[in-house]
Write a structure and sequence with these properties.
The protein is mostly beta strands and 72 residues long. Helix content is 0%, strand content 57%.
Length: 72
């Protein structure tokens, strides 16, 4: 398990965008995250990994699990 820091958080009405430096589980690139009321989506622009992550809160913090949703 890796610990990554969020950066560049942008909040607009009903939407939050952020980037997780080194957050891609495939290539280690930055992972862009969009959180809305109905869904969470991620994309790595380096390897083009697209996922629909599941957020799980545990004792050590929030864990992001992001199975493949496709490759762009």
């Amino acid at each position: 398990m890796r610990h990554v820091e969020a950066r560049e958080t942008i909040e607009t009405e009903g939407r939050r965008d952020l980037s997780l430096a080194g957050g891609c589980m495939l290539c280690g690139g930055d992972l862009d995250v969009r959180i809305t009321a109905g869904a969470t989506r991620t994309v790595c622009k380096t390897c083009r990994w697209i996922s629909r992550p599941h957020l799980v809160r545990g004792e050590e913090g929030v864990h992001v699990v992001h199975p493949a949703g496709g490759i762009a």
